[in-house]
Structures are given as C-alpha cells and as structure tokens.
Amino acid sequence: MSIRDWPIKRKLTAILLLISGLVLSLTSAAFVTYEVVTLRRTIQDHLATRSRILAANSTAALAFANEADATELLAALKYDPHMVAAALYDQNGRVLATFPAAAPADLVPAAPEPDGSRFEGGRLVAFTPVAQGENQRLGTLYIASDTKAVSDALRLSGIIAVIVLAIAMLAAYALAAGLQGRISEPILALANTATAVATRQDYFARAPKFGEDELGQLADAFNQMLGRLEEQRKELQQQAKILEQRVAERTQELEHRNEALRRNAAELLAANTELDAFAYSVSHDLRAPLRSIDGFSQVVLEDYAGQLGDAGQDALRRVRAASQKMATLIDDLLKLARVTRAEMRTERVDLSGIAQEIVLDIQRATPERAVEFAITPGLEAQGDARLLRVVLDNLLRNGWKYTGKQPQPRVEFTAKDDNGDRVFVIKDNGAGFDMRYADKLFGVFQRLHSAAEFEGTGVGLATVRRIINRHGGRIWAEGAVDQGAAFYFTL
Amino acid sequence: MNPGKILLVEDNPDDVALTMRALKSHNITNDVVVAQDGVQAIEYLFGTTGRPAPTDLPAVVLLDLKLPKINGMEVLQRIRSEQRTKFLPVVILTSSDEERDVIDGYKLGANSYVRKPVDFVEFTKAAQQLGLYWLLMNRAAPPPRGL
Known about the structure:
heterodimer, A: 491 residues, alpha+beta, Heat Shock Protein 90, 5-stranded antiparallel beta sheet, 59% helix, B: 147 residues, 5-stranded parallel beta sheet, 5 helices, globular
C-alpha cells in the first residue's frame, strides 16, 4: 500500500512520529556533540596543566642531564592510568628519559616536535618547553595520553540519547495515537456519512460535529449540502409525480382521441363502403330509366311523328335532350365519386406528356377548331398518374371550351416557382370570369356561364379540386370577364 | 342469314323492348330468347327441361350484370366452367362502365363489354353492330364432341 492510500489515522501518527523523531534526533546530536567537544577541551587543558607542572619539575634534571632523576620524575606518571608515554629531550633534542623506561621507538617520537598539544591517532600529545627562568630553554617534555575518557563519555551520552529518543518516541506515539483521533475522527465520521448517503441514498443522515474548527465547519457545510440535496430530491420527486400525472392524463387523452379516431376511421370506412355501394347502384340503376325515357320518346317520334305535330315533336326532343343531359350529369358525378374513392398510387408523372396526349385527343375530335396549345415540355410532378390526367383533361378542355368565341384561341400549360413551391398554370384567353365569383368556381354544380353560352355540368372543377386536395396541393383561379382565365395548382 | 339464336339476359322489360326494337329495325330477325334473371338464363342453358342441344346453343349471349337472384357475373362464371358452353360468345351489355365490372367481366372470360348508351339512337347503332358482328361475322367455336 502506498503512503497515499494509508488511512488518515496512520498518516497522522506517522507524521507526528516523523516530526518528533527528527526533532529529538537533532537535539540528541547537538547534546552529544557538545559533550564531546567540552570533554576534549577539558582533558586537553588538564594535560597541558600537568605538562607544565612536570616541565617545571624537570628543569634540574635537564640542567644537569641527570638521566636517573629524569626517569624517576617521569615514572610518577604511572599513577595516571590514561598516560601512555612521555619523554624528556635535552637542548639538542636528544632523548634523556622516557616513560615507561625504555619505551619502544614507536611510542616516543625521536625528536621533539613543535610546542603545543594536539590529538594524534587516537591520542592526545603535548610538547611543552622546559625552561629556566624566562628565556633559557633547557629542553622539551613530551606527554601522550589516551582519549579513552572521551570515547567513554561519547558512548555514555550516545546511550543516554538513544534511551531518551526511544522513550520520547514511545511517548510521542502514545500521544499521537490519542490525539490524532481529534482530527481523524470527524473526518472519518464525515466519510461514513458521505458513504451512507451515497450507498443508501439516506439523505436524512447528518455528519456529527466535534467542534467549531475547520472540520466542524466542514461538517456544517456538508450537512447543509445534504439538506439542500434532500430538498431538491423532494422537489424533483414532486416534479416527477406531476410529470407522471401529466403523462397519464395525456396518455388517457390520447387514448380517447385514438378511440375517437378509430371510431371515425371505422365510420369513414363504413361511409366509404356505403358510398361505393351507392355509386355502384347509381351507375347501374339511375341510367336505366333514362334510357327508357329517351328510348321510348324516340320510339314515339319515329312511329307517331305525324300525329304529334311540330310542338309535340319539339317537346319530345326536349325530353330526350334532358334525359341525355342527366345521363352526362350522372356520369360526371360518378367520376367525382370515383376520384374520391380511388386508391392513390404515387409515382413520377410526366405532366407535359399527358397534356400533349389530351391535346391530340381534342384536336382529333374537333378538327374544325384551331386552338393554339402551348405546352411547356418536361413538366413533372409526384402523384397519381390517372387522377392527374383527369385534372389536366378538365382544365385543358375548359380552356378549349371557353375560348370558343375568341378569334385567336390560345391555351398554355406552364409552371413557375413561387417561394420554393412548384405552381402549375393552365391559362387561356377565353371568356374568363368575374373574380367576385372566384370562390364558387370549384363547387359542385356551380356554373358561371349559362348552358346556352357554354355547355357543362358544373362538376369538372369540383372533381379537379378534389384530386388536388387528395394530393395535398392547392388550386386557385384568376381571371376577368373576356380577359381569359388562369388556373394555378400545386401538388 | 344465320339462323343462330340470341340469348338476351335482361330483367328490365323496357330494355328488352328497346333491344328487340333496335335489332328488328336493322332486320336482324333471329330468334331472341329472353331470360329475365340469372336463374332463368342458367335454366335455359343447363336446365333439365328445355335444355338446348349442343348444336342449338345461342350464337351469342347478351348479358346484363345487375340481375335478380343470380347476377350476370355468376352466370358468366357458370357458362365458362361448363364444357359445352366454354366457348360460347358472351357480350356483357349493361348500364354501368364501372372499372371493376369491366375488369371482372374480362377476367371471367367475357368476349366483349358494351355499355348501353342512354341516347336511343346510339343504342340502336350499338345493337345493330353487335348483331351484325356476332351473328354474321364471328366464326363460332365448333360444338364440343361427345356430347
């Protein structure tokens, strides 16, 4: 486990121990150093003092080069266990006497060295001048003592330092263990509370507060946050409940609407089926009596013409014309009904091509009329080809029909773009119409011209509009009396 | 003139009278057998009584569609399903030109589909052309053998 992952308790204890250990170690080191330095200075002073005393006592022996006296003088050093060696040199630097007597050569330097005392290879050595009076130098005294006292003192103070350090560390550990709780406990409590909130969503949990310090503030802030969270959660729950309720309401509403739609669809389907049956029956049954009326009128006209007279024949001819007109009406109405019922098959439709075919049809059927048709090539639309053919057929034939009294009749089929919408236009220079009645143009059986002026049943444009509506398009017309008419449609 | 008969299946007596007049006015004097509904038509063609010999089948059947009891389509279906009448010329002669009637008629094997015009002059022309074509010009299939 890296230090980063240690529990706070251990981290705190470790920090406390580290700091107190460091402080204590530094203190101990200073203490030991001071002890050693002081002791060295003391024994150096001590040796210097002894050297001077011995030097003063040696003057006579040196002055007379009395070797025996000198040796005896030095022998007194044996009472100091620390003394290692000593020697007296005469004026010329020759050795007069040594301690111990007959000391080996490595123990005593062969010639005196500069005056003064110094530590040398684990020993303290001192060279002291031996002089008579102030100026007459007689020789040199050499004394070497061991430094056992220093090393003893060093060992002792080292041991003391270690013991103190150990005791202090133990105490520090005990104290740290006790005191770290003051800091770690609130943090741990906070962590536990946070865990409880996170895992159990227990927003009522509160972190305990141990004091007014920063941890206390932290606990306060945390608790405040929990309070806000709880409030927001409640608010959210409420919102969710409201939303759920709304969704439920909407769903119910939608279901009602769906139900209504289903019912409508079923009703529509039934109505459509009924309309279908009605139209079928109309196409069969309504024409039969007309055929009888027309047929037998003709029979009477053929067989009894003489008895009828002109007025009678005229009347019967009107009966026949009326029945034929009614047959046309029925056919047109059936076409209108068919347009409503027909299934739409949407595809790309070549409107220009269809228009050309219709124009050819018209020109073949009525070669005696020279109407100029201007069809813009390449007009296309998405829609049901058969139904769109009905649209073009009606509009082109209308143009053809209403230009009947125009010396230079012209009908054109073009298209333009209006705000991104493709608008198809069929325009003629014929009889036109009064714009006041423009909205009546597309009603069933609505006619703006008398049958004597222009023939018609008033169903064609209604059929056209129904087809355009089924394609999701719009149709409208513009015109003026004797100024021609223009029909616009989108798909 | 071909002595073949015409079977006119028509429930409307006015239409019967007008059809007869139209035919006669063009000197088509062939026998016209009238069936007033689908049942009578089937009875005439396949019934046990008065059943015509294979050689005595009508030269053409003029068949209306909207008929009481059994309608024209069913009659047509029956005609086409029987060996002896399989190739019998059938012209649907009716009031409507509803697309599905036209399609169904051809699907079931009608030889022709003619809508009766309201204009009697037109109607007469149609009857004349039908009579001339089916009675004089058309070469009927030979009667089936072994019957």
